[in-house]
Structure formats: C-alpha cells, structure tokens
Specification:
This protein is mainly beta and 150 residues long. Helix content is 0%, strand content 39%.
Amino acid sequence: MKGNNNTFAVDKNYRTFRTNVILHGEGQRITVGKGAHFGNVGLNAQENTSIEIGDDALFSYQTEIRTTDAHSVLDYTTKERLNPAKSIKIGNHVWIGMQTIISKGVVLADDIIVGAKAMVVKSVNQSHVMIAGVPAKIMKENVTWSLDRK
C-alpha cells in the first residue's frame, strides 16, 4: 500500500496462495466477500478506484485484475488522456480461470464462469453464462459451477 486512506477488506473464509495486492494513491479500496479463493492473483487498484469482489468467488492461478493501464495514453494533438482508470466489480459465485486478465471498468454479474486465458475488457450483465476468448464474449448460457465433482 502506498498513499493514504487505502483499504483492503476481506470477509470470512478467505483463502489465498501468493496473492499480490497493490493499492497506490489516495482512497483506493479492495473488498473481498465471504468464501473467496485466490491462487497467485494480482489485484491492482490505483487512481481513486476500487475492486469489489462478491461472495464465493474462485480465482485460478496467474489472474490479473487491474483498474488502470499504469501509464497514460494521450491524444497527440490535445494531450487529453484517453485511458482513465475505472473501478471493477465482480459478482457473487464467479469462477475466473487461470491466466485471465480483467481490465478497468469491467462489471461481472453473479454466477459467471470465465474461461482460462480470457481477456475481459467489457462488462457482462447476464448471470449463468460462460465467457472466454480475447476479447471475452459469451460462449455458453444457462450454466453454473460447483467445487464438488459430481
């Protein structure tokens, strides 16, 4: 953590393995709901943004969740910034496959599966779907997931 008034709040039954948390600047916030599982995940909130993760979320290895591109992209003529940082919200019971990137501004509804190596650059408001690809899009509807192998 670097800066002031930054918050990292984790609810009950949180499990992690080699998770890297970066809160840089003033007033960043990362909140994680009950029963979340993380394996070697990078959480990066900067520039007055937040990452909100719901209950029962599962994150596989080498996943990156970033509210910023880390550097500015400017219009050459006006020098206006074209890539401002934006907060991220991930719903309840979301499973993120390994080596996935979730970009700034993304909102994921409850009960979504994100396939391995996906690049999520747009929000998905529909529950019970599987998304995958670069960029990620809906591949299958009417699905859910469970830790139990039935």
